[in-house]
Specification:
- This protein has 3 helices and 5 strands, in the order H-E-E-E-H-E-E-H.
- By secondary structure, it is α+β, with helices and mostly antiparallel strands.
- A 5-stranded antiparallel sheet has the order 1-2-3-5-4.
- Helix 2 packs across helix 3 (115-128).
- The longest helix is centred in the middle third of the chain and has 21 residues, at 53-73.
- The N and C termini lie far apart (28 Å).
- The relative contact order is 0.23.
- The model has no long low-confidence stretch (mean pLDDT 95).
């Protein structure tokens, strides 16, 4: 069972931003920007492009709804989407509020936000979902 499956199951706490019967969105605990959110399928599949076509399409539509909620919660030029998937063997999409292309640089120092601020960020996104 991956760490994301354990988060979805409620075994590990998370800052939930959105959820439906097939997908779960929560804040990245090592964000590159405030509002950096992960979208994962509840089905445990290692690689995004191993998902069946219907699930991948539905996940993208779910991610679009989350991105719109992020943009309402954190005014930005756009919300960037990245698929990396090397650190956790569970398909996921990164959604990151952008003011510039440099905001998508995963090599830059990650933000260290207090739990109260993370909870407030997640609540703001969830309220706009």
């Amino acid at each position: 069972m991956t760490i994301f499956s354990r988060i979805i199951a409620g075994e590990i706490p998370s800052y939930k931003c959105a959820e439906d019967d097939r997908f779960y969105a929560f804040l990245d605990i090592n964000p590159v920007a405030k509002g950096h959110t992960l979208v994962v399928p509840k089905q445990e599949v290692d690689y995004l492009f191993d998902l069946d076509d219907e699930t991948l399409a539905a996940m993208t539509v779910f991610a679009k709804r989350v991105a719109k909620a992020i943009q309402q919660a954190f005014p930005c030029r756009k919300v960037g989407m990245a698929v990396l998937g090397l650190e956790v063997n569970h398909a996921h999409i990164h959604l990151i509020p952008l003011q510039s292309e440099g905001d998508m640089d995963f090599r830059k120092e990650k933000l260290q936000l207090p739990a109260e601020e993370m909870q407030a960020i997640a609540a703001k996104i969830l309220a706009n979902f």
